Amino acid sequence: MQMNTGKPAGVILAGGQSRRMGVKRKAFLELGGRTLLARVIDILRPGVEPLLLSSETATDDFNDYGLPVIADLVPRFSGPLGGLYSALEHLSGAGFDGGLVLCPCDAPFVPDNLVQVLLDAGQDDRTKPVVVSYQGVLQPTFSLWQGSHLPLIREAVLDRGLGGLKQMLSLMPHTVVEWIPTEPSPFFNINTPADLEAATLWLDRTGA
């Protein structure tokens, strides 16, 4: 695993439950002939090094993607904060203490400048995480964190049992990037069959 390239690490949240979609993993749903995960990988890969997948367990499900899979260190389901914590612990153990860009696997229209916008917003004060806001609503799974945040996050997960990124952000000063609205929404998540149908219609209409 390559480290210290000057780029932030990237972590794609690829675990969690997908009961509403009727499948084991949303990551492998297809949109326009490509999986949701493949779409997010293609957007993030140029701007990050290394690029990792976060999953609730170590699994061979992701072998076709050729990326390291970081299993949650917390035995119970601990939400996206548990995935962030596990990734930071892994990177710390490998000697990486720089930035980490977080992104979910189920957001097919992620903007290709996400990484750079987060980095630019955080360059004046790297003690704070940077989080996207869209139409006044925080989007914490699209965010930039630092290795220096690990002690606080470790305490929140292990000692306080927190699992939500918004819970974590409520405990820390953070920088907010208000994203200019576009269509389709760049932070649209696919959570239901209706969402997948809507994304397919947008893709057919715009070629996004």
Going across the major beta sheet, what is the strand order?
5-4-1-6-8-7-9
Extract low-pLDDT stretches.
none
Mean pLDDT: 91
How many structural domains can be distinguished in the coordinates? 1
Fill in the CATH topology.
Spore Coat Polysaccharide Biosynthesis Protein SpsA, Chain A
Instruction: Write down the secondary-structure element order.
Output: EEEHEEHEHEEHHEH
> How many strands, what sense, and barrel or not for the largest sheet?
7 strands, mixed
Quick one: overall form?
globular
Architecture per CATH nomenclature, i.e. the level-2 architecture: Alpha-Beta Complex
Tell me the distance between the termini: 31 Å
Class per helix and strand makeup? alpha/beta
Nearest-angstrom radius of gyration?
A: 16 Å
How many individual β-strands? 9
CATH top level? Alpha Beta
CATH superfamily: Spore Coat Polysaccharide Biosynthesis Protein SpsA, Chain A
Helix/strand layout:
Elements: E1 9-13, E2 30-31, E3 34-35, H1 36-44, E4 51-55, E5 69-71, H2 79-93, E6 99-104, H3 114-122, E7 130-134, E8 137-146, H4 150-159, H5 165-169, E9 175-179, H6 193-206
Parallel strand pairs: 1-4, 1-6, 4-5, 7-9
Antiparallel strand pairs: 2-3, 6-8, 7-8
Helix pairs in contact: 2-4
